[in-house]
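Per reviewer request, we include the raw input and output of the structure prediction for the construct analysed in the revised manuscript.
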Amino acid sequence: MRLATIISILVILASSASAHANGCHFLDLYAFIKDYRIGDVYCSKGKLMGKATNDLYVQQIGGEGPSCDVTFIQNSAAPFGNNWVEVSKIHIQQNLCALKAGNIHVSHLSGKVPTYTTKEGSFSHSRSGNITITGFK
């Protein structure tokens, strides 16, 4: 592989990794709640860019902001077993970020009702929007 090709790949990887931290075209979801995890994620608009046990981030694609269904799971056999079941499902959506940050919407679809906070991103400060799930009712 030529050196120029390797350098180009490294530049692309570095810019895509830093895009998550900087940019109102991303929406981050955090859910650090004991015994709960993020389960399946389905995005009808935008793209799932990363998902871990307790957080995820999605990106707007084209002229529309991200729009995704997110499930939360809980281990019903804890602390000795391993039986993860869906306990809540929500819909998250962020309006298009273009010259200003998009509004954030959270809708409860099924199961336990989450409590959450939102923080709108910033176009001028290149900051992503975020949703923090603080618990379930």
